[in-house]
Amino acid sequence: GTRECTLSEKNGECSADSNALSLDASRWSQVGIEGTGQLTGALLAAPDAVVLLDEFEKAHPEAISDVLLSAFEDNGGFKDTKLDKYVPTSRATFIINTNVGSDIVLQQRERIQERSDKLTAKDPLVVQIDQQFQQLLKDLPSSINPFGRAEFRGRVDEWVMFYPYSQSQIGDVARLALQQRVLSYYLHSAPPSRRLAIGWDPRVINLLASKYGGTDGSEGFRPMLKGVDSMHDRLRE
C-alpha cells in the first residue's frame, strides 16, 4: 500500500494510504531544519516516500547547504537531533517545485501555445528556453537562492519545464470545470426541486478560456475557475 503524509510546521505525520509528502519550503525561515522533526519524522515513517519541496526558492539558502546537500547524495541522509537518529534518504524521491525561470517561459507564451501540441525536446524553441534557463541558474546569487550553487544543481537528476497550455487544452479544462462545478451540482447535489440539466453556448467556453493566465499570464487556471464559480453563484441566487 501507499502512505499519505502531511507535513506541518512542527512534524510530519503519515496515514496508511499514500506515500506523498508535501513540504512548503517557505517555512524554512531559519538556518537548518535538523531537529524539528518536520521532514525527518515523516521520512522515518515512510522512507520510500515521494517528497514535494514546494516554493523552493523561498527556502533559506543555508538550510540547503546544512541539510539537503547531504540528503541528495546517493547514500545520503541527515541527523534528527531531537530524535537522535540518522535518517537515510536514499530510498526517497525528491521533487522540487519552483517559479525560478517562469519569466523565460512567459516571454514565449504565444509561440508555445501556437505549437504546444507539436513541441519536442529537440524543437529549437524548447532548446532556446532550456539554454536560457540553465544560464539563469548559473547566474543566480548563491547567497539568496540555493540554485545558485553548482554543487546543488549537480545533485538534480532532471529538470522538467512546465509550458502554458494550448488553446484546445484550455477549452477542454473549461468544459471539465463546468461539468464538475456546475452541471454535477444540479444533477446530483442540488435539492430535488432545483435539479435540472444545464447546457452552455460554445461562446461560454471561449469566454472562460480567455481568462486563463490572468492579466499577466502567470496565474494559470485560477481566474478561469473563479469565473466558473461566479457563474455558479449567479445561477444559485
Automatic annotation (TrEMBL):
Protein name as catalogued: ATPase AAA-type core domain-containing protein
Biological processes annotated in GO: cellular response to heat
InterPro entries: ATPase_AAA_core, ClpA_ClpB, P-loop_NTPase
Gene Ontology molecular function, alphabetical: ATP binding; ATP hydrolysis activity
Domain ATPase AAA-type core positions: 27-158
This protein's record includes keyword Nucleotidyltransferase: no
Species this chain originates from: Hemiselmis andersenii (Cryptophyte alga)
Annotated Gene Ontology cellular component terms: cytoplasm
Keyword annotations from UniProtKB, A to Z: ATP-binding, Nucleotide-binding
Signal peptide start-end: none
Stored Pfam families: AAA_2
